[in-house]
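Note to self: the last two entries modelled the partners one at a time, which told us nothing about the interface. This time every component goes in together.
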Amino acid sequence: MMMTMKKYMNMLLLPAVVAVSSCGLDNYDAPESKLLGRVVYQGEPVGVRGTGEAVQLQLYQDGYELRDPIPVYVGQDGTFEAKLFDGAYKLVTRDNNGPWVNDRDTTVVNVNGTANVDIEVTPFYTVSNVQLALSGSSADASFQVNEIAGGRDIDYVMILVGKTSFVDDVSYTARMDIDDATAGSTVTGSIDLANNTDFQSGGSLYARVGVRSVGKDQAIYSQVVKLR
Amino acid sequence: MKKSSISIVKVLVLAVGIACFSGCSNFLEQEPDTILPEEQIFEDEVLIRSVLANFYGRLTNVPNTDPVITWGQHIASSYQYTILDEAGRSEGGPDVMQNYANDLWRVYDYELIRNMNQFLEGVRATTALDEESKQLYEGEVRFLRAWVYFNMARGMGGMPIVGDEVFDYQLGDDVTALQYPRSTEAGIYDYIIAECEAVSTMLSDETNTHSARANKWTALMLKARAAVYAGSLANYNNKMSSPIRTPGGEVGIPADLAAGYYEQALAAAKDVIDNSPYELQLKKPDELERNFYEAVSVKDGNTEVIWARDYIYPGTGQQVNFTTINIPGSHAEDIDRAYAGPILNLVEDFEYKDNRNGDIRIRDNQGAYVFYDDPLDAFANKDARLGATVILPNADFKGTPVELQAGQKVWDNGSWRTVVGQPGESQAGRLLTSDNGPTRSNDQYINKTGFFFRKFLDEAAGASTRGRNSEMWFPRFRYAEAVLIAAEAAMELGQQPAAVSYINQVRERAGIQPLTSITLDDIVQERRVEFAFEDHRYWDLKRFRLAHTVWNGVVNSPTAQQYALFPYLVVAPGTPNDGKYVFDRLVFSGSQHPRNFELRNYYNFIDLDWRNSNPKIVLNPFQ
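The predicted structure of the combined assembly is written out below.
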C-alpha cells in the first residue's frame, strides 16, 4: 500500500516540475489599466437595469486577427468599468440594446493607465423630480416623465421596491405598473406593502421608478433611493 | 522490481525504434481496417443505408456542445420541457432559470450538411443502385438536409445555403471562396419550400414502420410548416412597434410576402389532408381520452403520425429515458421517478366541453373552497386531450390510480389549517401526504407540480427501468398539424368558413364545442393544447411575436409564472365535507422566477467564432 502511494506521489511531482519550470515568454501579465465611464444624457448618468448583463457596451481593438468584442456591462447607475491593456479601443453600444435611440457610432478611447469616457446617448424618455418615500406601510412615488427623442409611445411606467440596492424590472419585491402615464405630466402612485413579507421583516428597502417605451428591450430608470 | 521494469521499457523502446528506422517493409502503408473509404461505401447498398441511418441519428443534439444543445424540445431531454410554460422540474432544489439563453436550441451543423452532400455525390455516381432507388435515397437525404436548414432558420433566421457543394480545402487554397454569406430569412424558407416540393415527387407515398423514415407526406408537411412559419413571420414581425430586422434581410421578411406563404402552406396542408394515407385517428370514438393518447403515444397501428424519431429495444442508445425518469413514484419500476410534471398553466389552458375558460373551480364566488368527492372530479367535462396529456390527481395509469395529495385541510375553530407531512405519512389513520407528493420541499423523486406527464409515458412493462428504458417515439409531424396549419393559413387569408371547418375537426375529436369564427388567439390556444410537449409552443410564440408578452418576466404574472395545483384531504369530522378534497393554487416552488423572454431572444445570437472564420456572416439584432 505504502509503495503504491509513493509511486503516485512521484507521479504528482511531474506536473509540479512542469508548472514550476514553465517559461514566462508566452504569458501576459493581467491587464492593469482601467477604463472608467458613464452612459450620460446631457451630463447626467442614465439609470438602467443593472442585473442579468442586460445593458452592454462593446469594446473593439483593431489590428488583431479575430474581431470578438469585449462586453462591458453597464451598472444600474449608468457607470461602467473595464480592466484593459494600454492601447486604442473603439467603444460602441450594443445593437438595439438600452432605453435610448439606437446609435452605433464609435467612440475612440485611448487607454494609458486610466481613461475616463462619457458615452452620450439620446433616451426616448427621462424621469425627473423623483420623490420616493415610505409613509406607514405604503411606498409613495411622484415623478415627471419627459419625452426626449420622440417617435415612441410610453408602454408603461413602473414603481419598484426591492429589498437590496439592486432594483429593476426583474429584481424587486413589489411593483406597480401604470399604463396611462403621459409625457410632461407628473405621475404619482403608491404601493401598499402591508402584506409584503420583506416589508414585514423590517429590513432595508430600496426603490426606483422606470419608464419603458414601446418596442425597446430596456426601460430607463431613476437612481435607486433607500427607503429605510 | 522497479529496476527490471525500466529495463524492459528500455528494451521495448529500443526495439520499436529499430523497427521504425530500419523499416524497409511498408507496414505504415496498410489499408485501414476500421475505416471505410467513400468509394467502398457507395459500392454497397447496405453501407449506403447505414450512412443514411447515421443522418437520422444526428437530428437530436448539436455535436460538440457542453452542456449539450438539443434541437428544441424532445423526449430524450426532459429538462427542455420545464423551461417554458408546460411543465416544471420537480427534482431537488429550485431551478434558478430566469432568462432564455442566447444559444437556446441553436442548431448549427454544417458538418452534417457536408456529410449529406457527400452522400448525394456518392449516390448519384454509384452503380450499385438502380435509378429508382437512387431517386429515393436522394429525395430522403435532401429532405433531411431541408430539415436541418429549417431547424437553423427557426432559431437564427437566414443562414448560408451551400446547395450541393462539397467543400474541399488544400493548404494554401483561397478560403474566401468557401465563405458564403447568410441568406435572407425569406431566402432560407424559400429554399426549404422549394427543396421539399422537389423531393416530394421523388419519395415514396407509402407509409413505413413506425413512421421512422421520411416519405412524400413528410416533405409536404415540412413544406407546409416552413411556409406557415414564413407567412406568420412576415405578418406579425411587421406588426411589432419596432420590427426585428437586419439591414440585409437576414432577419425580417417583408410583409407583402405573407399572403404568398400562407397560400403555399394551405395548398401543401390540403394535399396531405386530402391525399395522404394518414387521418385524424379516431379508433375509439367512445373513449376520446384514450383515443388521443393512442393517436400520439402508441406506435402500433397508428394512422396519425407522419414522421417520428423512433426508438427500439434492444440496441445500444436506441431507447429513451423519458418514462424512466418521469413516471409517478407509485408506478415506478426503478429508483428514478418524478423528475418533472406538467404545471397548472397548461392544465387550465384546456377548455371545458361547454366553457372556453378552462380555469379549475377551486373556490366559489364567496371565496370558499369547492369540495370534491374525488380529486379527479375537479377535471370533469374537460377537453379529452387533458387527461391524455396529463395524469391528473387520482387518474388511472396502467390500471391503478395515481394518488396525489399534498396534505390535509383541517377545520379548526372556524378556519382551515393546512397540515403537511412527509411523503407517505398518515395521521390518525388517514393519509397526510401521498408517496407521490406533491410537496414544496427540495426532495428528489417527489412531485412538486400536482400533475404527471401522460403523453409519451410508456405503459409497457419494464419501460421505466434504467436497464431497458422505453421504446416510445417522438412524433415530429402528425396529421393534426396539417389540419391546424390549414386552419391558420385559411384564417389569415380571410377564408373563415374553411378555417372554422378545419379547426373544428380537431376540436370535435377532443370532445369540445365547435367554433363559429376564429382569430389568432384560437389558433394559439388550439396548438398549445393539441401539441403540448411536441416542440411547438416556443416556436409558435416566437413566430407570432407573442413570446415577450406571454413570458413577460413579471412576478406572479398568470402566464410567465409557473403554478402548481395541490390537492388536500378535508378533515372536518362531523361535517358533510369530511373526507372530501379541496385544492390550492400555489406558485410552483421548483422554479420561482417568472419566465422572461426578451426581445433579443427572438433570434439566437450568432457565435462569434463562426464570424471569425467567415467574416461574411453578419450578426443578429441585439447582439
